[in-house]
Amino acid sequence: MTGRSAISAQHRALLTERLLACLGKDNIVLDVESQRPWECDALPLYRDLPLLVALPATVAQVKTVLQVCHEFDVPVVARGAGTGVTAGSMPHPEGVLLSLSRLDRILDIDPLARTARVETGVSNLAISAAAAQYGLYYAPDPSSQIACSIGGNVAANSGGVHCLKYGLTTHNLLAIKALTVEGEELALGSAGLDSPGYDLMALMTGSEGLLAVVTEVTVKLLPVPQAAKLVLAGFDSVRAASDAVGAIIAAGIIPAGLEMLDRLTIQAVEDYVNAGYPRDAEAVLLCELDGTEEEVAEHTATVSALLGELGASTLHVARDEAERALLWKGRKAAFPAVGRLAPDYYCMDGTIPRAQLAHVLEQIALLSKEYALPVANVFHAGDGNLHPLILFDAGNPEEIRKAEAFGARILTLSVEVGGSITGEHGVGLEKIRQMPAQFGEAELLLFEEIKAAFDPALNLNPGKGIPILKRCQEYRALPARHRHD
Amino acid sequence: MIESTDIADTLVEAVIGAAEARAPLCIVGGNSKQLLAGRHCDATPLQVGGHRGIVDYTPEELVITARAGTPIAEIESTLSAEGQTLASEPPRYDGAGTLGGTLACNLSGPARPWSGALRDAVLGLRLIDGRGQHLRFGGRVMKNVAGYDVSRLQAGALGTLGVITEVSLKVMPRSEFTTTLAFALPAAQAIDTMNRRAAVPSPLNGALWHAGRLFLRLSGAQSAVAQCAREWGGEPVSAQDAPWESLREMPEALFDQAQNQPLPLYRLSVGSASSLGDLDERCIIDWCGALRWLPSEQALSSVHAIAAANGGHASLFRGGDRSGEVRAPLAPAQQGVQQRLKQAFDPGAIFNPGRLYSWL
Ligand SMILES: Cc1cc2nc3c(=O)[nH]c(=O)nc-3n(C[C@H](O)[C@H](O)[C@H](O)COP(=O)(O)OP(=O)(O)OC[C@H]3O[C@@H](n4cnc5c(N)ncnc54)[C@H](O)[C@@H]3O)c2cc1C
Description:
heterodimer; A: alpha+beta; Uridine Diphospho-n-acetylenolpyruvylglucosamine Reductase, domain 3; Alpha-Beta Plaits; 4 domains; 7-stranded antiparallel sheet; 17 helices; globular; B: alpha+beta; 5-stranded antiparallel sheet; 4-stranded antiparallel sheet
C-alpha cells in the first residue's frame, strides 16, 4: 500500500539503536525480508512493512518499547497471533510492530475460584488445555482457537460457536493488565465480579489495540459440561432452516451452539473432511445441547421433535463422542474447505436480528448473481452472526474490486435490517469505511474523544477501528498518518 | 397496561439548557437509589422517570428495548407473560427502580456469577451526552463489535457520563424449575463448599451464606434439578422461606434488626474463594463468595484494605458519611483516564457531579 516511511533516517536510526540497546538484537527484526511474516494478518489483501518488529519477551520489555516509541512519537501496532481477518494488526509504515507472541506463560490457575491468569500471548486453546486437569475450561472458542492469542481475543471481543450460551470474551473476563501508550500500567477489573469507577475493562474489550496494550488477562473458567449432544438437521431450503433457528430459541431452549451451513459449504466440507453432512440438503443446522445428563436428554428430545415438525429432511443425533467431534470438525474446517474452491475468499461478519436471516440470505444470493462471484455461507445462526465467504481471485484486480463492493453491500444490508457491520471480527482497516453506515457523525466524534482520552497523540494502531474525521484531524493538527480518505 | 411516554425532546432541551447555564443536573429515575451506591449529589434534579414504556419486544429474538424510566418491575412482568426474564435479577425496589437507574448502578441479584450482571445483558442504548446530543450505541443484535463498547461503559457509571434514555437488553427464558437447599455450616466451610459445588457441572445458580447457614439454589430443567438435589442432600427450603428475594431487594434485611441504629453497610467485591478470616462470620456472603456485605463502623480505607488483600475492592453501599468518598481510590494512571473520559462525554461537568467520586 503505502511506501516506506516519512520518518527521517536519523530519527529512525536513533529509535532502532535505543530499542536494540533495551531489547537485544534477538528481539528486533530490521531487514525487510525477515519482516515478511508480519506484513499482514489473515486478510492478505492488505499488507505493509513496519520500521521494525519488536518481539519483547517480558512485560518490562513491552513497557520499554512503549516508552521509547512515546518519546520518539511513533505509532505502535500491537499484534497477537495475527489471525485477525480485518488487517487490524497490519504494520504501520512509520511505526513499530509490537509482537506479543513471546509473552506466552500461564501464570496461575486457581481451580477453586475457577480462574486462570495468563500472559497476553497465550493461545485461547492453551488455557482450556491447562484447565482440563481440573475439569474446567475457558468458554469462548473462536474457530481460530489453536492459534489466536487471549490478548487478541480481548482486543477483538472474540466470539465462537459456544457464545450463544456462554457469552463473548467480554462476559468471561475478570481482570486485565494493560500498558498505556506512555507505558503506564492499568490494572482493570478485579478478582471479584466488578471494579470501582468506570468499567474500563468493558471499554478495552473490543478496542482493537487502539486504547492500550494488553499484557495479562485473568479469565473465568467453567466446569466442563457433564454431557453434550449434537443434533444435525438438513433442510430443503435456506428459509426453512432459518425459521427453525428462531423456533428453537422461541421454545425456551438456549443451545450451546447453533450453526448453519449452506449448500456450497456442505459440498466443500464433505469433499475436504467427509464430516457426514447430507449432500442433498440446501442447508444444515448443527444444534448442540449441553448441561447435565438429564437436562441434555430432555432438551435433545424437544429439539429433535421440533426440527422434525419444522420439516427437516434429515435429522440425526450424533451417536457418540467420535461422531460429535467429526460433525464439529466439519464446521471448524469450513473456512479452509471453502478456501479450496477459489484462489481467495473474503469473509464478511455482519450480525442481524435472527428473524431477518432468511431475507438477508436471499438478498446475498441475489447479490452473488449481480457481482458474478460465488458466495458460501457458514455462520453462527443462533447469534444472527453471518459469515458470507465471497470467492474471488486476488490475482485479478477487477475481481478484488467486485469482492470488496459485494462485501460492502452485505454490510450495508446488515445495518439496514437493524444489525451491525461486524459481530466478532472487528473493524480494523478493512471495514473502516463502513463505520459511517452504522454510526452518525456525533457518535464517531465521541469515539475519537474516547480514543484521545487514552492516547492523545493517536499513536496506538492509527488508521484502524474508528475513522478519524476531517474535522478532528484539523482540530488536533494531526499528522497525515491518520488520514484515510 | 404499561404507560408509554416519550419525553426525549424535553430531556435533550433540559440538558442543553443546563450546559449553557453551566448548571449541574442530578439525574433521577424512580428516586429509589439516591441514598445508596453513590455520594451525595447537590444539583437540580432531572426527572427521567416520565420517559418510559417498552419500545420493542420480540420474544423470539430474546431482546427487549425500553425507555430508561420504565420500572424494572414492569419490564419483568412483560417478560414473564412470555416465559422470559432478566437473568441478572436486578432489585425492583417496590416498583420504583427504573431500567436506566439500575443499569447506571449496575445492580444485580444472586444469579450474577452464573447469569451475568445487567452489564452483561446490555446490547445497546441511547444516551444524551453533555453537549445535549442524543446518541445511539450498540444495537438490538446479539453481537456487535463496531466501535467502542460505550453501552457497557454506562454500567456502574452512576449517570456521570450522560442521561441514559433507552436500553436494549438480551433476555433469557425463565428456568423451568427452582429449588433451594440449606446446610448448617460455619462461614469458612461454606465458602469452600459453594466454590467446590460451582466447580462441577450442576444447575447451581445461587449460593449464599448467612448466620450459620449455607443456601444453594438450583435452577433449570426439572430432571436436572431433582437429580442434583438428591445428590447434594441438605434441607429443602420452601420458596417463601428461601432468602433470594430479600437478597435481591435489600440484603441488609437479612441482618438482625434488633439494632435500632443500623451500621453503615459495606459491599466487598473479592475473589470468590478468598477468606476474610473472622470477619466472614459477620458478613452476608453472596455471589458464591465474590460479594460480601459487611455492616461496619470502620472507615472505607480500612474495609477496602481487607478487600484489596483479597484481590478486590470495597464500597460504602448505604449509610455512613456520603459526602466523603464511598469507593476505593484508583491508581493515578487510571484516575487520569477516567477524568479524561468524563471530559469526553460531559465537557461541562453537568451530570451528577461528584456522585461517583468527588473528582468526577
Ligand atoms: C480461520 C479463522 C477462523 C476464525 N474464527 C473466529 C471466530 O470463530 N470468532 C472470532 O471472534 N474470530 C475468529 N477469527 C478472527 C481472529 O482469530 C480473532 O479476531 C482473534 O481474536 C485474533 O487474535 P490474534 O491473537 O490473532 O490477534 P491479531 O490478529 O494479532 O490482532 C487482532 C487485533 O487485536 C490487536 N491486539 C492483539 N493483541 C493485542 C494486545 N495484546 N493488546 C492490544 N491489542 C492487541 C491488534 O492490534 C489487532 O487490532 C478467525 C480467524 C481465522 C483466520
